[in-house]
Amino acid sequence: MNSEDYGWKPEVSQWYDQALENRNNPDANIWTIIQRPENSFQTASWWLARKIIQDASTFELGYRNQIRHLVSREEAQGSFPFTQYIRELCQNALDSVMNDEHLTIELIIDDSGMVFSHDGRSFKGPTPTSPEGEMASLYAPGMTTKRGSFNSEGRFGIGFKGWMLFFEGIKHEHSDGNQKIQIGYRFEGDGYNQETLHLKGTEAPENSEPSIRKTSFRFSEPTDEFKHPSIEEIVDEWLPMIRFAHHGVTIKINLMGDEVEIIHEVNTLETLENPAINQEIFESFTKTDLASTISLNKFICTYESCEPIPFELIPDCPECGDNSDVERIPCDDDLLFQYCCTYDDCGDVPFSAAPDGPDSLVPDCPECGDSNDVIRKERITEERIMAFDHK
Fold first, then answer.
1. Are the beta carbons of 247 and 102 closer than 8 angstroms?
2. Does an H or E element contain 183, and which?
3. Which of 291-304 are b and which e, b meaning 16 or more Cβ less than 10 Å from the residue's Cβ?
4. DSSP 8-state code for residue 318
5. Which residues, in sequence order, are CB contacts of 246 under 8 Å at separation 6+?
6. Residue 143's beta-bridge partner residues?
7. How does residue 228 score in pLDDT terms, banded at 50, 70 and 90?
8. Strand partners, 253
9. Which end of the chain is more exposed for a tag (fewer CB within 10 A), N or C?
């Protein structure tokens, strides 16, 4: 298999063969060559491309069902943990931070699919202890760079193929700041659509322009299994992961037009130089901004026996006295919410949920049926933490 045919340097396929021959010889010179900074990204991406080319011709029928069975067997209620899948994408982005640099993570979910990206460290190439390299390891079933937990980008040792439960198409668009690659593939039934393989290596004309360091995954053509979580569920999953991070993080999420921005900043207050306790005292500030009006009109109940799950105030129509046909309509004022009733006899006349101001109505909690402990979910929340960090 010639790497040059797919846009990689011609010597990369030779390096693959040499690494395969020396997989039990960690002192072989080939490992020094492929671990050089200028070669690591090349080899990491070609190892993945080569594996996909092989699978495209040998992918066995029934594999999708095997993955579905494995995931549902591990889940107590047989559901597919999409929220946990994207949680692991976030966790791996956090693990990719270089020298405590500020990290930016972006997640976009809409009807066409999902895009996840970050600007952390690029994928590492093959090593004697991890001969697949990081890109191919995250893709291959049973391969993992973590023990006893999720694997690099999937769950239960499934690898990136586990995403076929939710999307038909996946595209990798990665850059180490100097080189770029594009690797795309589409699942059809229980195999690949070979005609849609998209393999563009670092030497391909499409990747000739310089690029900033970025790791990006594009998921397209959602399956029937794809049921996206609410933006609050994603925030609740991701916030604990960055709360004690000893580096800055910006997270931007856009889910079906609903937006949130989370900014985490860190200041070192003191360094304890005692040899027995080599630690830093730091403070962190985490600000969450629910930027869309969709989130502004949500409430939570603080009563101790109620789950803190946001719910929305849907007012009754002033004409028919019912809210089953009431829909929100666009409004220029971020603090006032306009609605209309689509019932035939009501005439689609806009009305406000709270004629006397946005705080004049508080809905009953759907769990306890009372409004005494119901509060509006704030658009902006801030949290300050002081902690120790071992140097």
1. yes
2. strand 180-188
3. bbbbbbbbbbbeee
4. T
5. 100, 266, 280, 282, 389
6. none
7. confident
8. 107, 260
9. C
Dihedral sign (CA 78, 83, 89, 92): negative
To 5 degrees, how large is the angle CA 50–CA 52–CA 53? 65
DSSP string for residues in 8-34:
S-HHHHHHHHHHHHTTT-TTSHHHHHH
Q: Does the domain at residues 3-228 carry the CATH identifier 3.40.50?
A: no
Contact status, residue 111 vs residue 227, Cβ threshold 8 Å? no
Nearest-Å Rg of the Cα atoms of the chain is 25
Of the pLDDT bands very low, low, confident and very high (cuts 50, 70, 90), residue 224 is confident
pLDDT interval class at 110 (50, 70, 90): very high
Give the β-pairing of 103-110 and 249-255.
Answer: parallel
pLDDT in tens, 179-194: 999 999 888 776 677 7
Q: Tokens 């066409």 — which residue?
A: 112
- Please give the full DSSP string across 31-97, using - where no structure is assigned: HHHHTSHHHHHHHHHHHHHHHHHHHHHHPPTTHHHHHHHHHHHHSTTS---HHHHHHHHHHHHHHT-
What pTM does this model have?
A: 0.76
Tally of CB atoms within 10 A around 178: 13
Give the pair of three-digit tokens for residue 362: 């508080």
Q: What are the structural domain ranges in the chain?
A: 3-228
Structure tokens given for 299: 């409430």
